[in-house]
Amino acid sequence: MNIGKNEPTIVKAEDIEPGFNWDRAIPAPGHSAVDFEERVNFRRLHDYRLGRSKNALAESELGAILCLDANNIRYISGTVIGEWSRDKMSRYALLTGTGDPHIWDFGSAATHHRIHMPWLSPGCCHAGMLGLRGAVPPDAGLMRSAAEEIKAIMTEHGVADMPLGVDIIEPPLFYELQAQGLEVRDAQQTMLNAREIKNIDEIVLLNQAAAMVDGVYHQIFEELKPGVREADIVASATKRLYEMGSDQVEAINAVSGERCNPHPHNFTDRLFRPGDQAFFDVIQSYMGYRTCYYRTINVGRASQSQRDAYVRAREWIDASIALIRPGVGTDRVAACWPTAEALGFANEMECFGLQFGHGLGLFLHERPIISRLVSLENPLEIKEGMVFALETYCPASDGFSGARIEEEVVVTDDGCRVITLFPSEELPVANAY
């Protein structure tokens, strides 16, 4: 609801409580709504995300936030029009400190929002288009009109003399906003502040997404045999995820044999062979909430050097999981992992992403980022309600194999819970000889 000008909206903490009950297991309730259980309460989810956004804005020096990042748009407004929009930078949303969120969407999507999204004020749903990343030249005036409209809304709500925060932006729009007399600042940090603590609905969605990947790994384990290609595994896993309700399969890494070391972060049409070490990363989302979930599986048999690499990777990830609890700094977690030099790399930049932690939510990389590259000198505090992935990698002594393990954890009041449940305590060997 709109309130008076120059009155920042502060949402009371009790109105957006995360709703944790760590005495119970975290549900993975399925995809359907039913009348006999409360599963995900989407209206509560919308209210929580908008409340967190308003409070983060109120705690900043910004008068409004302009979002072109699809994940921030969804977080603030509860709107999405599919994967098509992710890299177009055509949709945008504006949140002032004194009003409802405004959303500009692609053509008829705005009309659809007015009909089907009652949590949005109809007058705040606009059709908008900025030029499809320059395909319509800036001289056409679309960005100028958008900047004028944004300035008018900020003026209406009494915040036009305050800085406008923006998460990502094309230079022509940046210049048009400046031409309107607006001081443009970074809002990505403000939005990350809002998004770092998940409520129970977000955690349930993240757990459901992980449960889907549990099933995919069982399928991969059964299919992994000589003559099958990395690309075949990616194709069948992608199909299965969409059958289970995934709304985006962003990437599936499938890495095997001599491709394991160094890690290339992709897949090819390479055939699996007997004795290959292979690792996979399933990156997908359910209701927007992401997974990042590595597992290593050998094909038919495993050598001692491959088993040794797996044991080390498991030891490192177990050591980091044991440290996770509220109040611990990310520097302590990063310090328990080996140095880049110990893994055969020249420096931590070349080793980045191999011993790694990263927040999960509507985006693949949220807070906290945990790495020897950044965390030792710039630690962040781990907080209850954070959800993040921890991943380790160990090259094998044979010179080409390697083991990769990743676990997703939910930070509880006194520790953490692992929500990635496909067995990984020992090296799995598929279709053993």
Walkthrough of the structure:
By secondary structure, the chain is α+β, with helices and mostly antiparallel strands. It folds into two domains: 13-195, Creatinase/prolidase N-terminal domain (Creatine Amidinohydrolase, Chain A, domain 1, 3-Layer(aba) Sandwich), CATH 3.40.350; 200-430, Creatine Amidinohydrolase. It is built from eleven helices and 16 strands. It has helices spanning 42-58, 70-77, 109-116, 142-156, 171-179, 188-195, 200-223, 230-243, 304-323, 330-335, 348-351, and strands at residues 64-67, 92-96, 102-105, 125-127, 164-166, 184-186, 248-256, 277-286, 289-290, 293-299, 356-359, 366-370, 387-395, 402-411, 416-418, 429-430. Strands 4-3-2-1-5-6 form a six-stranded mixed β-sheet, with helices on both faces. Strands 7, 8, 9, 10 and 16 form a five-stranded mixed β-sheet that branches. Helix 5 links the parallel strand 5 and strand 6 (184-186). Helix 1 (42-58) crosses helix 6, helix 4 (142-156) packs across helix 5 and helix 7 crosses helix 8 (230-243). Mean pLDDT is 95; it is low at 1-5.
- Our estimate of the beta-strand percent is 15-25%
Structurally, how many domains make up the residues? 2
The helical percent reads 25-40%
Number of strands: 16
Sum up the overall morphology in one term: globular
Give the topology string: H per helix, E per strand.
Answer: HEHEEHEHEHEHHHEEEEHHHEEEEEE
The low-pLDDT segments are 1-5
User: What is the second-level CATH architecture of the largest domain?
Assistant: Alpha-Beta Complex
Q: What's the story with the biggest beta sheet?
A: 6 strands, mixed
Rg value = 23 Å
The residue-averaged pLDDT reads 95
Number of helices: 11
**Quaternary organisation of the protein chains:** single chain
Class of the largest domain, according to the CATH hierarchy? Alpha Beta
Q: Which structural category do the helix and sheet elements fall into?
A: alpha+beta
Topology-level CATH name of the largest domain = Creatine Amidinohydrolase
CATH superfamily of the largest domain: Creatinase/methionine aminopeptidase superfamily
Neighbour order of strands in the largest sheet: 4-3-2-1-5-6
N- and C-termini, Cα separation: 65 Å
